[in-house]
Design brief:
Layout: H1 35-45, E1 58-67, E2 85-94, E3 109-117, E4 120-127, H2 140-147, H3 158-167, H4 172-179, E5 193-194, E6 199-202, E7 208-217, H5 226-235, H6 239-249, E8 255-264, H7 265-270, E9 290-299, H8 304-309, E10 322-323, H9 328-345, H10 422-430, H11 433-447, H12 452-465, H13 467-476, H14 481-488, H15 492-498
Antiparallel strand pairs: 1-2, 1-9, 2-3, 3-4, 5-7, 6-7, 6-10, 7-8, 8-9
Length: about 500
């Protein structure tokens, strides 16, 4: 028989009894002197850190990116050079549900990957869809509140959700994706994922191109119907987490092929719509996928809390050769994600092992809660200094980005090139008939409890994307199709006024 390991308190001293409180007499009250009891209860009260406002329910695994092709003409990032093998950690999540939500809900899936590169950590934060609902960061907190619980009833509200979505026509393409069969993946292994935003790449000559990141599953796309998902949720709310864990444990490592799309600065200037709008796609026929390598997940975490719950990501973490773009939603996320982690985990969350870079870090940050690494000892805490510590490296700076136009609050809907319905209509037209019918039925069922004005608003958007799409949704939602056609003739402000 193995010898039992000995229990200690938080300071390493032995604990005499872990089951019986110290009391004043055999039936008396517990005394303050039972300091181990006080420590246990105090720690227990603080074990639940604030959950993520979004993406609260998640699962994770370690892996590696192996670059098999040469894209050095576009980027000098060491992580993307031919033959590079980079360790990583990926967290998958639903978006709207809380930490105890069921895995198989109709929702997009967040996919955040931390690459431990030789130049520092690169966080690629995206979803299993190539676009998003909104394009302006001002709508970010409002989207989250619309899909979360209603403050009056404490329940999720389809009325709130669809009201918000249909008041912003740029949501339409993403709505079509979420209500399609891809709204409930069969597993994390059976879905693509994307960086969503437009980023930039720059090479050794400081030549910039705009870029989108794609990861296409090698396991094939598989999805669940509402009925299949409901049955699974009734039996196993952690179905996706279980599937990922067990696949890796049995050596069936999930893999994705990594691609990029590239757009030159000149192409961006002449593109027929805003290429930095996250609610738009870059058609593959115009900007073909360029293969980069293979991404594999091959090791499960040892401790869920330490490695999955405490994993922290922000798109602000890039490395030389990878940069940002004028995407206004990305610009807001550059602050919002890191600040959320500072609130949730503390200012020193980058020192948590799952978040810690594999290279030396010298960033002048000092002090704060949970600083346990020596705090840089006696080295200077200021810059510039005369001791020669930690000078900037101007050679890794991004090339300058040209800016055009006056500073103002521009509404993209005022741009004559803005078309919120092109991508959704194109998606509708490539769907097989059975997938079209599934999309219509999913949408009609999800919106069923909403008021009629919201249904008409969405029906008009469907019609603007494709007349057949509008007609079939109107029929499924039992709406007057002639009224839908009349509403579709209105501009955005007119449609809102008519359906408010």
């Amino acid at each position: 028989m193995n010898e039992y390991k000995k229990l200690t308190n938080e300071a390493g001293a032995p604990v005499a009894d872990n089951e019986n409180a110290i009391t004043a007499g055999p039936r008396g009250p517990v005394v303050m002197q039972d300091v181990w009891l006080l420590e246990k209860m105090a720690h227990f009260n603080r074990e639940v850190i604030p959950e993520r406002r979004m993406h609260a329910k998640g699962w994770g695994a370690y892996g590696k990116l192996t670059v098999t092709r040469d894209i050095s003409r576009y980027t000098k990032a060491k992580v993307l050079q031919p033959g590079a093998v980079t360790e990583s950690f990926t967290r998958f999540s639903t978006v709207a549900g809380e930490r105890g939500a069921a895995d198989c809900e109709r929702d997009i899936r967040g996919v955040a990957t931390k690459f431990y590169t030789p130049e520092g950590n690169w966080d690629l934060v995206g979803n299993n869809t190539p676009t998003f609902f909104i394009r302006d960061v001002h709508n970010f907190s409002d989207l989250n509140r619309a899909v979360k619980r209603d403050p009056h009833t404490g329940r999720r509200s389809a009325q709130n959700n669809w009201d918000f979505w249909t008041l912003l026509p740029e949501c339409f393409h993403q709505i079509t994706v979420v209500m399609s069969d891809r709204g409930i993946p069969a597993s994390f292994r059976n879905m693509h994922f994307f960086g969503e935003h437009t980023f930039s790449l720059y090479n050794e000559k400081n030549e910039r191109v705009w870029c989108k990141f794609h990861f296409k599953t090698q396991q094939g796309i598989k999805n669940l119907t509402n009925g299949e998902a409901a049955a699974i949720n009734g039996m196993d709310r952690e179905y996706h987490g279980k599937d990922l864990y067990e696949a890796i444990e049995r050596g069936d490592f999930p893999r994705w092929t990594m691609y990029i799309q590239v757009m030159t600065e000149e192409q961006a200037l002449n593109h027929y719509e805003n290429p930095f709008d996250i609610t738009k796609i870059w058609p593959h026929k115009e900007y073909p996928l360029i293969e980069v390598g293979v991404y594999e997940l091959n090791r499960n975490p040892e401790n869920y809390f330490a490695e999955v719950e405490q994993a922290a990501f922000t798109p602000a973490h890039v490395v030389p050769g990878i940069g940002f773009s004028p995407d206004r939603f990305l610009q807001g996320r550059l602050f919002a994600y890191g600040d959320a982690q500072r609130y949730r985990l503390g200012v020193n969350h980058n020192h948590i092992p799952v978040n810690r870079a594999k290279v030396e870090v010298n960033e002048y940050h000092r002090d704060g809660f949970m600083r346990v690494d020596g705090n840089y000892g006696a080295t200077p805490a200021y810059s510039p200094n005369s001791a020669g510590y930690w000078t900037a490296q101007p050679e890794v700076a991004e090339p300058p980005m040209a800016i055009d136009g006056a500073m103002w609050r521009y509404d993209p809907k005022d741009d004559p090139t803005d078309d919120c319905f092109r991508a959704g209509g194109n998606l509708w037209r490539v769907l097989a008939e059975d997938k079209k019918e599934l999309l219509i039925q999913n949408t009609a069922g999800d919106i069923a409890s909403c008021t009629e004005n919201i249904k008409y608003r969405h029906a008009a958007h469907c019609y603007l994307a494709d007349p057949e799409y509008g007609r079939r949704f109107a029929e499924a939602a039992k709406l007057d199709f002639e009224k839908v056609k009349e509403l579709s003739k209105l501009d955005h402000k007119g449609l809102i006024a008519a359906t408010i």
